Amino acid sequence: MAHSRFFNRQQIEDLIAAGQTIIIFQNNVLKLNDGWKDKHPGGRLVLDHMIGRDATAEIDAMHTQDTLRTMERYRIGRVVGPWQNLKPPIQGGRFETPEEVGSNNHNAAWDADPQDSGIDCDTSSDSSSIDCSPKLQPYKRLPHNFGPAIERLDSAIDLPTTLPSENTACSPADYVANTVQDEIDVDLAKYPALDFDTQRSIALKFQALHQRVKDEGFYECRFIEYGKEMIRYAGLFALFILTLRQGWYFVSACFLGLFWHQIMFTAHDAGHRGITRNITIDTIIGIFIADLCCGLSIGWWKSSHNVHHLLTNAPEHDPDIQNIPLFATAPAFLQNMKSSYYDNFEFLWDRVAAIAVRIQKYTYYPIMAVARFNLYALSWGFLLSKRSHTRGKTWWTRPTEIACISAYFFLYFYLLLYLCIPTWTARAVFLLTSHLVTMPLHVQITLSHWGTSTADLGPGESFAQRQLRTTMDVACPEWLDFVHGGLQFQVVHHLFPRVPRHNLRKLQVLVRKFCAETEIEYLIHGFVAGNGVVLSRLEQVAEQARLMAECQKHMAATGESGLH
């Protein structure tokens, strides 16, 4: 039988080189080609990013047991022993067919140029033991006359500073490469080693933790908690209607904004199938709340959010941090960069971006205050694009979303703003106030990632370590949980996305023990301190942009690096 076939590493590489979507799950080789990828409810991209990888942890975290059982039909065989991840083609991994390998005398397992891959592999005689860790590149040092500025940066942010050396040019590309490498070096020193044995040990311990999460019922939804929340939602909506009828337009707008703020937490749960665990029912709940009640596409949210969960804080891949020209949270954005999520759309580092990033610490809160308007644009942009077209059991979602969002715009902008509010001044106040009140939600969303690492440590890093390294929790007393809506437990949520948010506080205890056992730092700050971390990160990248501009300006004026 084909299912009993065993594949070695070269055979897997050959299949990928031939354009096959090959993913490893529990040592099974899954073939998920285009015909099925178009029907995947989570989108094509999440599969593309798992090609050549052991995606057991990712698949297990994102799917129910019923869904996992269906994967047997896509199994074409097994691999022998623990699998060591390859870099997927969408992330720059290079694979060649046997004919190309023969003509180029090149092994497709690794990138064509080790310097490009940043991977240094030491293979012992035992083929099951390969040490693949990011290769440390030699630095190109900055001119010495930038020292004072770097010292100011170094005192604010705990990152290493490169020191000047003789006969070194300072181009923008060199500066960005050095700064990116600095962040990698910090994480390499701070987190468990990337050798195969260490990361496999972490993966196995996480697998055991996940089994405990299942056995102890953390995936069971406590519907009584949603009953309590529905009372709060209904109360806020009733107050919005009551004060609107009284002509208290400013107060009414505040209650509507609070209604939006609170009810979107449940849409988040539905998007992760954390309520009923039935994709159809949870999708209907999500469309009703997000599209009809709030004017935002749940389909757009799921499309970007699924990628965000798998490639958290990856500048080239995570759409949640791709905010150029307004914001840059990673040094990688200080140059032109293509986004895999937006079909290789190129984010330009131009004069507008340079100016905006230099002041991003000061524009952060004002832009967060009006961020909801941008979500309208992103929602419509998604629904009108090919990315929203779905096949299979979710074919109906796009037309339903378009109808519901259209209904929202009719209800809000025509019936409410135009017919119920008498003057243009009052309409403008109501429009801005209702949207400004949702600002804490947007701050909350960015808080958990914008201040954390954006370094790519390579395909050898385990799922659990990457999530813990790139995500931060917000500490708050239990009685304030309803304000944060469960989003303050982002570390726990990123490890177990389908766990209902009402169970996250209890699950946090187990995650902390896991971190202590694996020696992975658990990132957590209070709300105020967390805001400080984000602002410091924005200031850090702004300073990096200034230093790069000074470096470029000096070279353009003198033709020298500034070294003496």
UniProtKB/TrEMBL annotation:
<feature type="transmembrane region" description="Helical">
    <location>
        <begin position="247"/>
        <end position="267"/>
    </location>
</feature>
<dbReference type="GO" id="GO:0016020">
    <property type="term" value="C:membrane"/>
</dbReference>
<dbReference type="InterPro" id="IPR005804">
    <property type="entry name" value="FA_desaturase_dom"/>
</dbReference>
<feature type="transmembrane region" description="Helical">
    <location>
        <begin position="405"/>
        <end position="424"/>
    </location>
</feature>
<keyword id="KW-0408">Iron</keyword>
<comment type="pathway">
    <text>Sphingolipid metabolism.</text>
</comment>
<dbReference type="Pfam" id="PF00173">
    <property type="entry name" value="Cyt-b5"/>
</dbReference>
<dbReference type="InterPro" id="IPR012171">
    <property type="entry name" value="Fatty_acid_desaturase"/>
</dbReference>
<feature type="domain" description="Cytochrome b5 heme-binding">
    <location>
        <begin position="4"/>
        <end position="80"/>
    </location>
</feature>
<feature type="compositionally biased region" description="Low complexity">
    <location>
        <begin position="116"/>
        <end position="133"/>
    </location>
</feature>
<dbReference type="InterPro" id="IPR001199">
    <property type="entry name" value="Cyt_B5-like_heme/steroid-bd"/>
</dbReference>
<keyword id="KW-0472">Membrane</keyword>
<dbReference type="InterPro" id="IPR036400">
    <property type="entry name" value="Cyt_B5-like_heme/steroid_sf"/>
</dbReference>
<protein>
    <recommendedName>
        <fullName>Delta 8-(E)-sphingolipid desaturase</fullName>
        <ecNumber>1.14.19.18</ecNumber>
    </recommendedName>
</protein>
<feature type="transmembrane region" description="Helical">
    <location>
        <begin position="279"/>
        <end position="301"/>
    </location>
</feature>
<feature type="transmembrane region" description="Helical">
    <location>
        <begin position="364"/>
        <end position="384"/>
    </location>
</feature>
<dbReference type="Pfam" id="PF00487">
    <property type="entry name" value="FA_desaturase"/>
</dbReference>
<feature type="region of interest" description="Disordered">
    <location>
        <begin position="110"/>
        <end position="134"/>
    </location>
</feature>
<keyword id="KW-1133">Transmembrane helix</keyword>
<comment type="similarity">
    <text>Belongs to the fatty acid desaturase type 1 family.</text>
</comment>
<keyword id="KW-0349">Heme</keyword>
<keyword id="KW-0560">Oxidoreductase</keyword>
<dbReference type="GO" id="GO:0006665">
    <property type="term" value="P:sphingolipid metabolic process"/>
</dbReference>
<dbReference type="GO" id="GO:0016717">
    <property type="term" value="F:oxidoreductase activity, acting on paired donors, with oxidation of a pair of donors resulting in the reduction of molecular oxygen to two molecules of water"/>
</dbReference>
<keyword id="KW-0812">Transmembrane</keyword>
<keyword id="KW-0443">Lipid metabolism</keyword>
<dbReference type="GO" id="GO:0046872">
    <property type="term" value="F:metal ion binding"/>
</dbReference>
<keyword id="KW-0746">Sphingolipid metabolism</keyword>
<comment type="pathway">
    <text>Lipid metabolism; sphingolipid metabolism.</text>
</comment>
<keyword id="KW-0479">Metal-binding</keyword>
